Amino acid sequence: xxxxxxxxxxxxxxxxxxxxxxxxxxxxxxxxxxxxxxxxxxxxxxxxxxxxxxxxxxxxxxxxxxxxxxxxxxxxxxxxxxxxxxxxxxxxxxxxxxxxxxxxxxxxxxxxxxxxxxxxxxxxxxxxxxxxxxxxxxxxxxxxxxxxxxxxxxxxxxxxxxxxxxxxxxxxxxxxxxxxxxxxxxxxxxxxxxxxxxxxxxxxxxxxxxxxxxxxxxxxxxxxxxxxxxxxxxxxxxxxxxxxxxxxxxxxxxxxxxxxxxxxxxxxxxxxxxxxxxx
Length: 279
Description:
- By secondary structure, the protein is α/β, with parallel strands linked by helices.
- It has helices spanning 30-47, 73-86, 100-105, 121-129, 147-156, 182-187, 218-228, 254-273, and strands at residues 3-5, 11-13, 19-23, 51-54, 91-94, 110-113, 133-137, 162-166, 169-170, 176-177, 193-196, 202-203, 212-213, 232-238, 252-253.
- Helix 1 packs parallel to helix 2 (73-86), helix 4 packs across helix 5 (147-156) and helix 7 (218-228) packs parallel to helix 8 (254-273).
- The mean pLDDT is 94.
């Protein structure tokens, strides 16, 4: 059985409901983060699906030196801890440096390795050593079968609490394309797969000093991934993406989230009950 434990009461994989990993791209403030976490949790409660709240304390890979990056480490972790206490959901955030792993693991339930850093051996080993679940975004530059080496590094670091995320592959300049074969190919490594529906429609550097995106295609790609087979869906969500300081063009508006997820969950559940066909 392919399954990864997130908390004592939440697992992702075979026999588990579709999980949403979602939230604003970056922590803007405590009040905003709590408001978003509560709003997303209410949607998930109505749809009876688990939520892992996502927001980054630091976006260390912004296009421009002038772009908003988030919060200092200590302040960001305090806000994520408040989300756990007040909203009552698990949390996930990115780490960019090896020294951050142990500190961040004191608060979060899942450590996330950004796509650009997915081959960084020391970072992977540090994340694995914490004992927390680790979600690794497949690099835009990697073939899905190359993620086997990422898995091997994490296992060598002492963990099997692993999630692998598809987030699109570089296609020329400023464009990503999704090869949906990557979902079953990565799942063959023995761990649950996540589909990142919002970064897959990103246009890296597409607006000069910042990335663009085509959020109108998020529902299409999310439905396709649900039909092919995914264990969790990743979406960055904002109550007003057009004024968001990071990744606004590809984030899902909060007031549209429920309608998008309803369709995705129905397709996912139909896939779960269908008999597999092997050729």
